[in-house]
Amino acid sequence: MPANIPMTSQVLPGPILVFDSGVGGLSVVQALRERMPDLPLVYACDNAAFPYGLKSDIWLKQRVASVIRCLISEIQPCLLVVACNTASTVALPELRELCSIPVVGVVPAIKPAALMTRSGHIALLATQGTISRPYTQQLIDEFAADCEVLKVGSNQLVQLAEIHLAGGEVADAQLLEILQPLLAEPRLDTVVLGCTHFPLLQPQLVRVAEAAGAQHWQWIDSGAAIARRVLHLLSNAGYSNPCCPDSFVRSCWLTATLDTNSQLPESLLRFGFDHLQVLNHPSI
């Protein structure tokens, strides 16, 4: 936090910036709002480069750093939440060096899943990029070494979550096909949603899984843990009940304009973001 802001102040010196490649980070926004409805949030998505899961690590490090640098210059946030598993597993160290504000990342909830499972059989449902990265395997080796972990990658589920939030319909049959590798494991009891997009479809995923016979699965994502971490950092800095000054517009920043028939603005409004702005900068 800036040194010139009194630690006893309840008014934040800037909003919390929540960043993702698309709309998946809105699941983290939802978790934050459940715990502190008045927390001033600005959302940003790099929709010009969506989806991140298909990009190389080298490209992602450069891209994420460039976009974040521009966003911080425009928004002047007091804290950054990288609400994207792909960006977090690739670029967090560089972002923490780049930023003078606290940076909170999101990683697959392997540790809590290992504590929750009764059978010792866990599934990680994430993007292809996330399940193949060494960082993910390090999490499994460190926190779930005594568990059987099934890794299932689905970039399609990211696209389906975007369609859902934009007002489109996602067929149960599409989700059932994605869940087939999990349904084939009879001892599985805990499913980690390792992409922030996936909780947006969790009610439908649960319904489809239960209809297929998996009524006993526990579902877990990182939203609650991220919200706890953000509120812990604010509390430690003296903001036990931060409020939202009138000067903070609950805006959403994009890196590309939307189609005129997009229903995304209506969906964003449900999350409290009533003003869309496009980040125009020659470096991105």
What's this entry about, in short?
The protein is of the alpha/beta class. The chain is built from eleven helices and ten strands. The longest helix has 19 residues.
How is the biggest beta sheet arranged? 6 strands, parallel
| Spatial arrangement of strands, main beta sheet | 4-3-1-2-9-10
Principal-axis shape equals: globular
Euclidean distance between termini CA atoms: 27 Å
Helix count?
A: 11
Strand tally: 10
Helix content: 40-55%
The CATH architecture of the largest domain is 3-Layer(aba) Sandwich
Describe this structure in words.
The protein is an alpha/beta fold and 284 residues long. It has two domains: 16-106 and 224-278, Rossmann fold (3-Layer(aba) Sandwich); 110-221, 3-Layer(aba) Sandwich (Rossmann fold), CATH 3.40.50.1860. It is built from eleven helices and ten strands. The strands form two sheets. It has a six-stranded parallel β-sheet with strand order 4-3-1-2-9-10, sandwiched between helices. Strands 6-5-7-8 form a four-stranded parallel β-sheet. Strand 3 (79-82), helix 3 and strand 4 (103-105) form a beta-alpha-beta unit. The chain is globular. The model is unreliable at 1-9 (pLDDT under 50).
Secondary structure layout plus pairing:
Layout: E1 16-20, H1 26-35, E2 41-45, H2 57-75, E3 79-82, H3 85-98, E4 103-105, H4 110-116, E5 121-126, H5 128-132, H6 134-143, E6 148-153, H7 156-165, H8 172-183, E7 190-193, H9 202-211, E8 218-220, H10 223-236, E9 251-254, H11 264-270, E10 275-278
Parallel strand pairs: 1-2, 1-3, 2-9, 3-4, 5-6, 5-7, 7-8, 9-10
